[in-house]
Amino acid sequence: MFFAAIAASLLFVGCNEKAPVGKLTESGLDKKNFETEVNGKKTDLYVLTNPGGMEVCITNLGGRIVSIMVPDKDGNKKDVVLGFDSIQDYINVPSNYGAIIGRYGNRIGNGTFQIDDVKYDLPKNNFGHTLHGGDKGFHTVIFDAKLAADNVLELTYLSKDGEEGFPGNLNVKVTYILGDDNALQIKYEAETDKPTVVNLTNHSYFNMDGDPTSKNTDWLLTLHADQYTPIDSTFMTTGEILTVEGTPMDFRTPTAIGSRIDDASFIQLVNGKGYDHNWVLNTGGDINKVAATLESPKTGIVLDVYTTEPGMQFYAGNFMEGTDKGKKGIVYQHRTAVCLETQKYPDTPNKKDWPTTTLRPGEKYQSETIFKFSVKK
Question: What is the spatial distance between Cα 10 and Cα 7, in angstroms, rounded to a whole number?
């Protein structure tokens, strides 16, 4: 595994701005555990704050969101994303927790695609397909980081021609902006010198109870989507677009995640081991329209998701197996989080009628997603 290889090169080094001894972030992270060097590049923990007291911690290893502190209905701060306490932990446990996913979020069928009659072969790392850019996707790289303001972090990376089989030198910029309204905005930009495919997203695991031991069963999910893209037993989209009407895929009104997730009479839930599908959003790429809402009745914490993307992958933590020991030594059990990954549909390079992910020289890839937090009393 790639992370195992870079673990051997992990060296602890000094940083210009040392966190005071004993000084922790509000979420309990020690900045010193992120100040190191991997493959000759420095890593760190960057802390974004706003006047309302919200805190977001991000590391430039994979551009990962490590923690998000928001108030619950009683005014108590809760950390609502899963992650790890140090760079070494992220390396020891290969995963996508909180990471920027690229070059291509989700799956490319059979690890191959064509642009202008040129065929490209990619690493096959998931049931014969390419998942999340391959084993050495963006979740493993060290981004160059610039803390532009107390609430703004800019991450840049040059993905070289041929990296994980993808064509073109791709210059990527991801900006995290924490607004005064408790909204975390993620802006993605990319340019290439050769025709390629790009589909960037964020893979945060949200736990709306702020308790990593708590199951996602009772959380209420709303997805503003009349349709979804079904999958086969290898989690690959079939090319169909089906209605959610009359199926367990209908989240157009607030619905408890656990109410239908184990319905073995519905083949899509069998194929996905639960929910692990792309929904076709009704929002038409309008960043001002709510695409999804996730709510904990226990804490009252509400997450509204806005995006310019046409699709969203809802993953209910079906492959969380109780093997990953996360922050504060807590083991992450089955279905104790959910992911809401904004995206183009999976395998669009091989499905001509679906939203294109092709990026050509002279064009600019732009995508935006907002995770906005509030409280329902």
Answer: 5
The pLDDT of 142-160, averaged and rounded, is 97
Q: Is 132 a catalytic residue?
A: no
Taking Cα atoms as reference points, which of 202, 224, 227, 243 lies closest to residue 289? 224
Provide the b/e sequence for 338-373 (b: ≥16 CB within 10 Å).
bbbbbbbbbbbbbbeebeebbbeeeeebebbbbbbb
Residues in CB range of 261: below 8 A, 6 or more apart: 217, 248, 269, 274, 275, 316, 335
Tell me if 57 sits within 8 A of 66, measured CB to CB.
yes
- Smallest CA-to-CA distance from 302 within 365, 218, 204, 372 is with 372
341 is a catalytic site residue: yes
Closest C-alpha among 332, 116, 49 to residue 211? 332
Q: What is the pLDDT of residues 166-212, one digit of tens each?
A: 999 999 999 999 999 999 999 999 999 999 999 999 999 999 999 99
In the 8-state DSSP scheme, what is residue 10?
Answer: -
- 34 in helix, strand or coil? helix
Apex CA 365: angle with CA 364 and CA 368, to 5°?
Answer: 130
Query: How many helices and strands, by DSSP H and E, does the chain display?
Result: 3, 30
pLDDT of residue 18: 40
pTM for the complete prediction?
Answer: 0.94
Query: Could you say which of 129, 132, 203, 277 is catalytic?
Result: 203
In this structure, what token pair is assigned to residue 105?
């979020």
Q: Report the distance separating Cα 303 and Cα 305, nearest Å.
A: 6
Q: Which amino acid is at 144?
A: D
Lowest mean pLDDT among 7-16, 47-56, 88-97: 7-16
- N-terminal to C-terminal alpha carbon distance within the chain: 46
